[in-house]
Amino acid sequence: MRTLRTPEERFADLPDFPYEPRYADVAEGLRMAYVEAGPPGGEPVVLLHGEPTWSFLYRHVMAELAAAGLRAIAVDLIGFGRSDKPADIADHSYAMHVEWTRALLFDVLQLGPQRSEDVQRSAPGRGSAGKHNLSGVTVVGQDWGGLIGLRIAAEHPGRIARIVAANTGLPTGDIPMPEVWHRFKDAVLKAPVLDIGRLVQAGCKRELSPEVRAAYDAPFPDESYKAGPRAMPGLVPISPDDPAAPANRAAWEVLTTLDRPFLVAFSDGDPITGGMAPILLKTISGTSGLAHPVIKGAGHFLQEDAGAELGRQIAVFVTST
């Protein structure tokens, strides 16, 4: 597999992003990047971004989590941010993105309790003070970060303490995707030049500054670095016989009965995934009894439009369940 590595100087002078990059090998010759904020001994909260962003998206969320005494870990998916970038679209698959991320979280960072059995559908109940007894990691996923994070949580529930779904879902190909998503997929595939900053702006309600748009462009010096963003829309299961469909169906079976607090924190203005919120609330048992916030005035990238508010809501969720 031919990979590219973005020169570090591309990431100079990032606005509101003082976090030092950290790196880990997740496969032979493949390096994955992440940043951390907050006390090393705090409860870990993993933040997974989606298409076509990177950990920079979570900068305001990270500040709120760190202020609450939590260990925020924002990951750059392979093909994005400071992580290595497989140069061919065919090198990207849903299964491999799940595996690369799993390797970072559990093999390298060793988050969550060490258990001989990972698949465990029930866990100790909540104590008298309302605090969940199971130690582990809180997984936060938005967009593709949810598609990957929900799979990881379902396949390794013994390591998971809580789950946050923010403008995301877990498609199996059994329900048609909205037309706006198909338009996005076609635009990404056909564009001679993929304007990353413009794509992010299109998913936001507020106007991004030139410096912020430049930060989203930074990981991609030229078109050869953009196989990841171009590949991701084509990896979403859109038919029942998609290669990823069986694994996603199996994940749904686990998540619907999994005894872990599950927060649904969607914005009020996302035409892409907004319809998933009521489905998650209806089908996931871990959502019961929780106050699920609606993040006001935010679009698909709610971390940009209302990052501090999202961070506060996640912090309250983690510290109270």
Automatic annotation (TrEMBL):
Keywords: Hydrolase
Domain annotation AB hydrolase-1: ranges: 45-309
GO function terms (MF aspect): hydrolase activity
Coiled coil stretches, renumbered: none
Pfam families on file: Abhydrolase_6
Gene3D superfamilies: alpha/beta hydrolase
Protein name: Alpha/beta fold hydrolase
Native organism: Nonomuraea turkmeniaca
